[in-house]
Amino acid sequence: MLIFWLLAGYLFLFIFRPYEYWPVLGQLHIERVYMLALLLALLTWKYKKYVPHRINASVLVFFFVMILSSITAVNSWDSYYIIVDYLKLIVFYFVIIAAVKDEKDLRNFILAYILIMFLYVGKSSWEFFINDRYWFRMGIKRLMGIDVTYGDPNYLAASIAYSLPFLWAMIKYKLESRPVRLLLWAYGVLALVAVIYTGSRSGMVTVLLFMVLMWISGSKKMIGALILSAALFVSWSTMPDDYQMRFLSIFDAEAGDKGADLSAKGRIEGLKAGINIFTNKPLLGIGPGNFKYGWEKVEVGGSAHNLYGQILGETGGAGFLAFFILVILIVKTHLSVIKRTGQLLKEKAAGLDERNLLFLRYASIASVQTIVLLLFNGNFGHNLYRYNYLWVGAMGVLASYFIARLDSPSPRTARIASVARGRRLFSRPSAASVSKASGKPNRVSS
Question: Are 11 and 115 in contact (CB under 8 A)?
Answer without folding.
Answer: no
